[in-house]
Amino acid sequence: MRPNSPSLPLPRRRAVLGAAAAASVLPVLARPVAAAAEPLRSTEPLPADAAVAREVREEFLHSWEGYKRAAWGYDEVRPVSGGHNDFFADGQSFGLSAVEALDTLYLMELDGEVALAADWIEAHLDPAADAEVHVFEAVIRLVGGLLAGYLCTGRERLLTRCRELTDRLLPAFTASPTGIPYTRVNLRTGAVAGTAPPLAEIGSNVLEFGLLSRLTGDSRYYDAAKRAYRAVLDRRSSLDLLGTSLHTETGKWLDTTSCAPNPPVDSFYEYLWAGGELLGDRELAGWYRLLTDAVLRHQLVRTGGLPWFQQVGATDGRVLGRRQSELGSFYAGLLGKGGDLALGREYYRSWTSVLDRHPVLPEGLDFGTGAVTAARDDLRPEYANAAFDLWRLTGDEEYKQTAYRYFEALRTHLRVPGGYTVAEDVTTTPVRLGDLTPGYWFAETPKYLYLMFAASPRFDYRAGLLSTEGKVLRGAVRRTG
Ligand code: DMJ
């Protein structure tokens, strides 16, 4: 499919909310706030909230315009070369970045852009494309993006597309003899493939599927997601730990390393907590507590006074590694939301200490030695996500300070004329750049930062709930008039 070119109206630059409105944002999730330790280091005073929100919105628009200019209708932009990237399947595009951006555009009150993106999606996103897609990525990015777009705008056709797409993803679950999903499915033929899903790919669908079941009255989606979770919980060890990946057809563990909160298991745990919150599912909430207690018991260690999570054998608790992925930094926020706030705050500081030592965050490190084990930076959102979560829980200025530092680091090192890009190596001076704006950029980092500073009237700061891909699945406030 050849993506269409848009007619590109310049976005209307509207003033963000004034300081008075910004000052009215309160810490929002009512939970006990643990005594805070001293921040790691003092920082310069921040610009006023409204000014930061304006900066973030401008940077988001800079990358959005880069995508529109060079890659409109394609999945992802290559902002250095001006090329584009098919994320799911070569020669097949779903306009991924536009789907990812929908609710961010809405929250930033860029309504002309929302209409442009939604019109394209409704006209061109093909839920029956002859493409073998990665089920997990299609769920968190496309299904979640369409759901959030629908919730923000009320455009029924976005919900229709969402349902059509999910119906075509469902064979990955229903064809499985164990309930553990296949990892890939051809949207046109329903042929399934891939029998070694890691935990994140097994569980990170219960929010999207549960919500879709609610919105449509069709329980098949939620039932499939719950069956998958149950299949994992039934296979936990006597220590209440989980391995990394399971075989779809035999149900046997393929890797018995408990590597939480690293990928590829990260959002499996996140969706247990969030499923309890969004869907009121007490079973999911109970599983979250059970499994988290085991992770804290067997994997939590301290190095230089800061907490990290080692890898252990799920059956015997034997220590297997000390690697930590940058993606694991989201866990600071999840710990906070799940009732372990003091530990969540400490773990956030573990990551702030990494940011203290590098221009931007590397993908991986050995927390025992501090050595970088993966020198890339994939323009990831997890640290900003944790800042957002912990700020909502505590209202503490520390999270605005550090989130702004993170934003400045990205702007200094990863901004290019065509938008924002990943880096190949963050240990070189200057940072050696790559050439891709991942779709999740449009869904996550600028959204978390903007919401922290903008006092947005379009987000319910108390009730709002975001998916692992930053999609607002609860708490979008519809525009009036
Ligand atoms: C995003 O696609 C989601 O946050 C997912 O849960 C894992 N991480 C990537 C971005 O790093």
Record keyword descriptors for this entry.
481 residues; alpha+beta; 3-stranded antiparallel sheet; 18 helices; 21 strands; disordered N terminus; binds 1-deoxymannojirimycin
Describe the structure.
The protein is α+β, with helices and mostly antiparallel strands and 481 residues long. The chain has 18 helices and 21 strands. It has helices at residues 19-23, 49-71, 96-107, 111-124, 135-153, 156-169, 171-174, 199-203, 206-216, 220-233, 266-279, 282-299, 331-337, 341-357, 382-394, 397-414, 439-443, 445-454; strands spanning 76-78, 83-85, 132-134, 184-186, 192-193, 245-246, 253-255, 257-258, 300-303, 306-309, 311-313, 319-321, 323-325, 364-366, 372-374, 415-416, 419-420, 423-425, 432-433, 465-466, 472-474. Strand 6 and strand 7 form a beta hairpin. 53% of the residues are buried. Bound molecules: 1-deoxymannojirimycin. 1-deoxymannojirimycin binds next to loops.
Report the count of strand segments.
21
What structural class do you assign from the helix and strand content? alpha+beta
Strand content: 5-15%
Distance between the termini: 37 Å
Q: Which percent bin holds the helix content?
A: 40-55%
Cα radius of gyration in angstroms:
21 Å
Mean pLDDT: 92
Low-confidence stretches: 1-42
Q: For the largest beta sheet, what order do the strands appear in spatially?
A: 3-4-5
Count of helical regions? 18
Major β-sheet annotation: 3 strands, antiparallel
Hetero ligands: 1-deoxymannojirimycin
Q: What is the 3D shape?
A: globular
Topology record:
Layout: H1 19-23, H2 49-71, E1 76-78, E2 83-85, H3 96-107, H4 111-124, E3 132-134, H5 135-153, H6 156-169, H7 171-174, E4 184-186, E5 192-193, H8 199-203, H9 206-216, H10 220-233, E6 245-246, E7 253-255, E8 257-258, H11 266-279, H12 282-299, E9 300-303, E10 306-309, E11 311-313, E12 319-321, E13 323-325, H13 331-337, H14 341-357, E14 364-366, E15 372-374, H15 382-394, H16 397-414, E16 415-416, E17 419-420, E18 423-425, E19 432-433, H17 439-443, H18 445-454, E20 465-466, E21 472-474
Antiparallel strand pairs: 1-2, 3-4, 4-5, 6-7, 8-11, 9-10, 11-12, 13-14, 14-15, 16-17, 18-19, 20-21
The structure holds 1-deoxymannojirimycin.
